[in-house]
Prior knowledge:
The chain is mainly beta. The protein has one helix at residues 7-10; strands at residues 16-22, 25-34, 39-44, 49-54, 58-63, 69-71, 87-91, 101-110, 113-124, 127-136, 148-153, 158-163, 181-186, 207-210, 217-221, 226-231, 238-243, 280-282, 292-293, 306-310, 315-321, 327-333, 341-346, 352-356, 360-366.
Amino acid sequence: xxxxxxxxxxxxxxxxxxxxxxxxxxxxxxxxxxxxxxxxxxxxxxxxxxxxxxxxxxxxxxxxxxxxxxxxxxxxxxxxxxxxxxxxxxxxxxxxxxxxxxxxxxxxxxxxxxxxxxxxxxxxxxxxxxxxxxxxxxxxxxxxxxxxxxxxxxxxxxxxxxxxxxxxxxxxxxxxxxxxxxxxxxxxxxxxxxxxxxxxxxxxxxxxxxxxxxxxxxxxxxxxxxxxxxxxxxxxxxxxxxxxxxxxxxxxxxxxxxxxxxxxxxxxxxxxxxxxxxxxxxxxxxxxxxxxxxxxxxxxxxxxxxxxxxxxxxxxxxxxxxxxxxxxxxxxxxxxxxxxxxxxxxxxxxxxxxxxxxxxxxxxxxxxxxxxx
Length: 373
């Protein structure tokens, strides 16, 4: 396997950073790799191979056993690098095989304007082939804000993608734009016949839910058939939501956040009939960047609990749920690392993998030595 030149320098790695304990669970954090960009998305393409997308337009495969990094080619040339935009998520559908499609989100340059885009391609040796844009979203603007772009799959042949309001609040309630929504497509990019607005000509048929600000976390749990999301609030008011077909999540009419530079609340309040309430609100903001519900065997005490990266408050956020899937507790893990955590996923080995905005790929694994801090 061909590796990047800097891999020889960095990969004395796979050494534990330190031991930790949370809720009587002892674990250690190991550095798997260090990259130069912001690792926005991660997905396993085999038990040992982790594909990582960096916002600066770099795509690579990390062998988690040898720590070798292999760069890949074949990305489109029209990625829009501005603000929060760039190459965003990378994800593989259930039962993925290497010959199958890999899904990407990115901000596409459309005549100088940025548009959150869902695409797919195949991997042939060290290059992407057969690149297809499945959805180039509406509301193409010069703004570098609120692209969102997190991808999730159900087990019935559908792909979901979150799209931020693009910094224009009114988009959250505008069903003639994709901005401020979560969309749902078939894996080939076609529109499912059971999408909620497919027969309403006044609404874009790809929309699954709306009233979102900047949802950077999206996770589908196949065991419960539930779609979870989290999103950035304006100043306070970050949210975790259970996403349901055709529902309105309120932004910007209702919010728990405040105006920037002002004590005034955003919108008309926190409740309105016909608009959904979040399951969890963060005040002050943690800046949630991803979402995962744990189901592995490595940490049985954490089964069913939610994990989110936190960019602003720099920690791994753990949410405990009761049997009715109501939030009962919040824990803030890895605070001592002082790292903005961008993405969190569960590996095929049941371990938890994180990426940080400083370029680190970290692994959480059980610590039988129990030397915790």
